[in-house]
Fold these 2 entries.
Entry 1:
Amino acid sequence: QQQVKQSPQSLIVQKGGISIINCAYENTAFDYFPWYQQFPGKGPALLIAIRPDVSEKKEGRFTISFNKSAKQFSLHIMDSQPGDSATYFCAALNYGGSQGNLIFGKGTKLSVKP
Amino acid sequence: NAGVTQTPKFRILKIGQSMTLQCTQDMNHNYMYWYRQDPGMGLKLIYYSVGAGITDKGEVPNGYNVSRSTTEDFPLRLELAAPSQTSVYFCASSLLRGFFTFGSGTRLTVV
């Protein structure tokens, strides 16, 4: 119940295309869903995050879509660029819980071809 | 503002050796975490701390120990290194829950 399932494991997209990464969770106590971006040799960095009181959040070319009833959320990267090539992790958190630690998906390696 | 600093960046250990991975943050964050990252497996929580003097186990604590004597420092100790501990280790800190700042990682190989 603490898992966050992420798919696909890898993704190849042409420059200018749309990249879509999906995540699903089971624990209904989760109430904060961030996405992290990691470049090779670097630590993950917060990209965008959403709370379940909204169905969509957009920041530039990055959009999170959230479906509370299905317990699913996804990251859409519009007009994908070679510089977006990185590993993306979805995560979930029980914001009101005692630990404050994120539960991460296994990651999606995105390659954007020029 | 250095953020989260991890040392060393790389290390090769022999089976049975011990070492300490250092983590320091200068943002006065209360929450600190240690994760390990293995290929295709995401990030697994090893230990975490909600403040100086308070630590607790995460999902994969066996073979590791931590201490939190100050707000800034959260070292991770490996005793009797095993090949299964070959991984990339990330330290993170947060002021608000979920807003993690990660270090650049320590790549550890146990041979």
Note: Chain B touches chain A at residues 4, 31, 33, 35, 40-45, 48, 50, 56, 58, 90, 92, 94, 97-100, 102-105 (CB under 8 Å).
Entry 2:
Amino acid sequence: EVQLVESGGGLVQPGGSLRLSCAASGFTFSDHYMDWVRQAPGKGLEWVGRTRNKAKSYTTEYAASVKGRFTVSRDDSKKSLYLQMNSLKTEDTAVYYCARVDGDNKFTYDYWGQGTPVTVSS
Amino acid sequence: DIQMTQSPSSLSASVGDRVTIICRASQGIGNDLGWYQQKPGKAPKRLIYAASSLQSGVPSRFSGSGSGTEFTLTISSLQPEDFATYYCLQHNSYPITSGQGTRLEIK
């Protein structure tokens, strides 16, 4: 059974940093691209960033709103995905989801984690 | 960036109704589109991929159609468990973008 479990969310002050983790199980993690998607309170879904797999040299993509502040990384040996968030702003307050990219089906998301909440506030 | 315009933003319907949600892309995306259902406090769940392919395990009352710039999600006969928020996401180019969501409520 595929499982994605996020952790690391919490309350942080503006300008602070936080590192989110997503532990994967039940599939060959190293084969898949992985994304972070967030959802601000009462709002829709916003894509944050992507890490490709080893075959694609672990290259990354980012939304303009987080580029230069957030870093997506992965450790295939630990089957884990990470989101390092620096220089946090109040508008980064959201539930953060990791999502598995289904490369066989138009790169849509076939599995999601349960989400971890991040609150940026003084 | 590709803008995804989803309509309606909310919809009130009854059990047994047929409902259609529309998503329009600001430029052509082929069939690189997914539809997702989200219930309160839960993660989204994929219903449709490649615009019209039904996710395994999803009831056949859900269907998707379209290509290019206009896409539809249809629920042929609403069931109580279908009351949720629905999102379209384009997976054609970066940044990946989403429609604003359609909140489907019980009439």
Note: Chain B is about 0% helix and 50% strand.
